[in-house]
Write a structure and sequence with these properties.
120 residues, mainly alpha, 7 helices
Amino acid sequence: MKKMYSEAITEFQTIRASVGNVPYGLGDLGYAYGISGRENEARKVLDELTGFLQQGREVQYDIALVTMVWGIASRLWIGWKKPLRHKPLLMPEVKFEPLWQNLRSEPRFVALLKKMGLEK
């Protein structure tokens, strides 16, 4: 992997500037901040995503993506504890995306996949 974090951050910031006050691209930006060591910015993104969640927006995947950077599996479940009203478009990725492989043996992760109809 090339670890071109600053370039990725620039791209995600450009996307965010063009879409306005919606969550699109916010999880990716928060992940890029976190993986590049910019923890304060990642935490600000997490706060913003939490605000969207409180407004009823489907941002569970994005919250999980940002919190996963810190390797704190227990914090990951903050975003997914609210029952999903429908499967967000990106949720099926958690079953196959290598990014999530460390969680695939976690019982809560397995239960989540089952709840979403994504189990084996």
